[in-house]
Design goal:
By secondary structure, the protein is of the alpha/beta class. The protein is about 40% helix and about 15% strand.
Length: about 220
């Protein structure tokens, strides 16, 4: 392990329009020594664009979902810190430095990036409401952005994952519950990030439906 160094994992599915810009922004974050893009069964040029931008690229033969893609990326992690970012952040991915700085300074074991408040909501808020309620019930934590995929973890938090993220779209909620139950410190901080919002259309409803099912699956597994 490289002491003080960080690996960045970026799961990506059909993100050829933004992935190069995201990778280039991440390259400017101090302490980052490895950027890994996991092309999760894309049908476009995501992998090629990421590789051209300078990232290590891992390709899955089929779409594994966010958790599965991140698990593949764990095989490439070096250093004491881990930064998780979405592929469609573009230049705003540079704000990941705030998350990384927070864990490096020892302010928390897991730091979550909270996006600026949107004037217009992209959905009805059911999945977010459920995630907040479940996390509060199981951990006592009151978080405003439990579904944010922008996260930094220190060595202690990485070890607490036991080498595996939860599968699917329940990965963020599972991470919070599992680390909180082990007594790790979790903190949210504001970041000036922006990315594509899920719309109020059929694909958007399908995406939220998958999120809902995966989050409920996370809870059921932990109850059993």
């Amino acid at each position: 392990m490289l002491e003080g160094a960080a690996t960045v994992l970026i799961p990506a599915f059909n993100e050829e329009k933004t992935i190069a810009e995201t990778v280039q922004a991440v390259q400017k974050i101090p302490g980052v020594v490895r950027i890994v893009v996991i092309d999760d069964g894309s049908h476009d040029q995501t992998a090629q664009r990421a590789e051209e931008a300078g990232a290590i690229v891992l390709k899955t033969p089929k779409n594994l979902g966010k958790g599965g893609a991140l698990n593949l990326g764990l095989t490439e992690v070096v250093g004491d810190f881990l930064l998780l970012l979405d592929a469609d952040l573009g230049q705003t991915a540079r704000e990941g430095r705030k998350l990384l700085e927070s864990v490096v300074k020892g302010q928390a074991d897991l730091v979550i990036g909270r996006f600026p408040e949107k004037k217009r909501k992209s959905g009805f808020g059911l999945v977010l409401w459920l995630a907040r309620r479940l996390i509060r019930s199981y951990t006592g934590l009151r978080l405003s952005a439990p579904l944010s995929g922008q996260r930094a973890l220190n060595k202690k938090a990485i070890a607490a994952l036991n080498g595996k993220f939860a599968e699917g779209f329940g990965v963020e909620v599972a991470m919070i519950i599992d680390l909180a139950r082990q007594g790790l410190i979790i903190r949210e901080i504001p970041v000036e990030m922006d990315h594509r919002q899920t719309r109020k259309d059929l694909p958007g409803f399908i995406h939220r439906g998958k999120q809902l099912v995966d989050i409920l699956g996370v809870i059921i597994k932990r109850l059993l």
